[in-house]
Every structure is written in C-alpha cells, then in structure tokens.
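Write out this protein's structure.
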Amino acid sequence: MKKTSRCWSNLLPELLEIIEDEIVVCTDKLRFSCVCKIWQSMAEIPNHNEIPWLVVPNYKSNTVSSSYGLLNLLNNKVYNIDLEEAKGKLFKGSSHGCLVVVDRISTTINLINPITKAQVQLPPRHKFPDVIRYQPGEDEDLTYWDFRGQKILTGSTSDANYYRLHRVILSSNPSSNNYIAASIYDRDSKLAFCGMGDTEWINIDDGTNYGDIIFHKDELYGFSSGMSLSIFDVSSWIPKLKEVIPFPKGRYGYFWSYLVEHSGQILLILRRLKRDETQQRQITRYFNVYKLHRSDKSWSELSEIGGGLVFVGLNSSFSVSSVNLPSGWRGNKIYFTDNLFDFLEEDVRGGYDFGIYDMVEKDIYRFEDYTSNQSIWPPPVWIMLNSS
C-alpha cells in the first residue's frame, strides 16, 4: 500500500482548537507548538503558577546554530525548539515571556516570544543617547560619547552590543500595546527608556550608574553602584525621579546586584563573587538578600524568602512564591545563571557560572550539565513562557 504524506498545517482550525483544549500539561503544549507555525499560533502556554524555563543554546555544537533548548526544571528535560530569529545573536535579557535579542553585526534590538515567534522591534542600538553618528558598512561604524572618559570614541556595532548594552527590561507584555522598555547601557551603566512606537531611546540623566532595574506597578526601581535605590514614577511619558533610598554603607567586595519583587515586597540580592585568575573566570560564592522597608527608607537582611524561589541572571529577575511550588519542592533557593558574555575588559570569561544557592544550608549546587570547562554561548537565560 502506498504511503500518503500528511501536512499537519492543513488540519482544520476547529479540529486543532479541540486538540489544543484537551492538552493540559505545559510541556505537552510546548510539544504541540513545535509541530509547525500554525500549531504554534494555536498553542496557549500557561503563564501562571509555573516554574520558569531555561533557554539554552545548542552549546555542544561547534557551529552557530538556530537550535535552542528549553530546560524544564520540573523533570530536568530539555525540549528542542528552533529559533532562527536568534541564530548567532546575543541575549540581553528576558521579560514578560520575551527574549531580548541583539545582532552582533547590526544595531537591531528585537523582542522575540520563543513559543509564538512573534517579534517586536525596539529602537536600534544606534538610537541610544551615547551614539553621535552611525555609518553602516564601516569597520568602526559607531561614533559615540564615552561618559566615563568624557570623550568621543569610535567602535564597532559588535563591541557596542557586547560591552555597551547590558540589559533591557519591559514594564508589561508587548501585546498589551502599552509597554515601556528600560535599558542599562554604556560602560558607565547609564539608564535609558523608550515607549511603544518610539524611534529612539531617551536618556534618564541623573548622574547615576546602575547595576539592575525592575518595574513594579507604576514605578521603575534602579539600584546603583553607589549603593542606593532610585525610584522613578513612570505613570507619565517621561520617568520622574521620586526618591532615593540609601543602602547601608559597608565593605561589600565584588558583587552583582539584582532587584526582584517577591510577594509584594522589593528585594535586593547581592551576588558575591570571586575571581579565578588561573581560569580567567569568576565564581559565585554566596548571596545576601535584603528587604526594602519603604515607609522608613530602611533595609533588613533576610535569612530566607518565605519558602519561595528567586531566578536571577540576564533575565529581568522574578520569583515564585511558596504556594506555587510543585509538590515535593523545597524553597528558599536562588537559581542563577551567568551574566557575562565572552570577555569583558577585565579579561574575565563568561558563560560558566550556573547553579542554585540554598539560603538555609548556605551552599551552592552546580547544574550538572554546566560544570565543564566549556563556555556556554550565549549564556542561558531564565524565561517565564507565555503564548500572548
């Protein structure tokens, strides 16, 4: 008997809708979405009461690939997904179900939903406040103002995207048509923003260098290298500085900072690091977690986070409360990925530092698949999947 081939994309939409409605497990919905683009558009990936996923590249290959994996922490399995839109590009964050993707050879900045493949284009890198002139086709195609050195420099788009664009976050899902994007950029970690439909990034010129930023309600929070928290009102078009809350002075050493909303509270997380000079890399030692008391502008250090989980790295940091943890899971843990790319100016390699910090046991557990001497590029990033 002659075999007949089936084109799954030709199934009646009504039949596809019935099939999709019968799928209740998130991982099964993910498999459903991977069949073809039409099935992908029908998939409704739940975005509540879920553990985040980890987007990992096909790092075992020696070639640049569009193949990525989505690691499900519930069963420790990786589900392959093709992201042609991210092939050979850099992740500069994830926020509200979207990956922030920048090109190494052009100045484009896109938001990509890895499930639906929907894309939203943000103003490009050459539309940031530090860029004076953009000459595509030249080896050094950008002329920009260096805030740290107070002088004019030239450089390539690749360098600008690697070292002069650190993080992009969103106030809401782009499908809401009413979002704001905020970015940390330049060697001095300045702050810029844009709204939906804007063609350029607007500088927030408050003379501060930022380590991390988050949106919470109608406010933008930014923690500075000067150990203070700036709070901006973003209810109007231009963010306005409302107040600055200092952080207790002390000797904190070498660290990265993260801001996260957890059960309605703003937490500051300091990731304490050490340098491994022989391997030219850095390693996480432990974390300190502090809760903001805004009423009296004070902070208190926490020994646990109410049984919940926190996820930090290149992503816009987020948390999972104890009531949403899967059965059998223990909380009070911080899941972390590497913030660094290939090399920074200090000659420190990125793409190695991944693991889980247990706040109760004060110990770190490394991800089994990410403990070799091979750097993972681009570094994996946490994402909360959704299909909108």
